[in-house]
Description:
Blueprint: H1 3-26, H2 29-47, H3 53-102, H4 106-133, H5 146-155, E1 157-158, H6 161-167, E2 175-177, E3 182-184, H7 185-193, E4 198-206, E5 209-216, E6 222-226, E7 231-235, H8 251-274, H9 279-293, H10 308-315
Parallel strand pairs: 1-4, 3-7
Antiparallel strand pairs: 2-3, 4-5, 5-6, 6-7
Helix pairs in contact: 1-2, 1-3, 2-9, 3-8, 3-10
Amino acid sequence: MDEYLLSVLNESNRVISKLQILSNYFEDDVVYKIYLRTQVIHKLFETNTELNASKLELFHLQFTQSVIDLLKRIKKNNEKNVSLVYNEIQLNNDLVGKMNESVHTEKNFNLDKQRQTLKINTSLRRLYQVLSEDSTDFPFSKNISSFSARYAKDFFYDISPVLFDELVIYTNEEVYTNSYAIIERKLLGKLCKYDFKTDFYCGLKAGNVIVEVYKFLNTDSYYLFLPSRNLFLLFDPAKISTMDLETTVSKKSAIMQELRYKTDRLESSILGLKTFIPLDIRNLLQESYNKISDISFLDNISSADVQANILKTMLNTDMM
């Protein structure tokens, strides 16, 4: 084997190795078929030393190298897109981590609702006794306002300031008042009737002002508690009938769920982005494969107009 042929074959092996790496990267049928066909052509010159080695050299120069340059360009563009996805995933994970540090779980909220209900029922029973006896004793349980302070941001529902004002309006004739609390007369009577058995229903907020809504057990009667003023008034549920009160998951938890779902979708898309080849490029690659698979291809390989022109056009395609 003469030195020229040996040099051409060695260079051919290096070119084919590059194509093999790209074939493994893209895992695309057309690219793999081109890689296999290129091996066949190489083997043909390796086993038939009488063939003109310059044709193999020209084949790689006009065809294989153009394919490699094209696939490298696509690979670089894909890796840039994958990098952007990884950055978005990292930002999502960081945001979820920060939110997770401050969010109160639904389980804790439900447990604390029960504790708060007990505090309210006990406090109202004591308030009734204080008012009945005209006592100056403090009637409220310890930290009765901490529940709203802790959970309002995540679990209470937003209402308008106008609606809030409607909910807490009253006249002096309608309420009992002492130095600790204000309670509607009709509400106190209803509490006595139902033995102070109520349950937390929902929380409402308008900006920084907050009310807790409670429901009498086994009835359709409600009342509200305004912690900032220790105010208790009957509550008409029709005023919030258009609100969706079914969801108990906090706002932050809902956002976290959406971010996790989005992250899962982004992660599942990475492999597709990494190996993506535009359809028009795949069609051109398929066309080129068909050309080099033609039995008469090598007869025309010395022509300067061999399919390299197609591949060079592909290299000039804007894939950004």
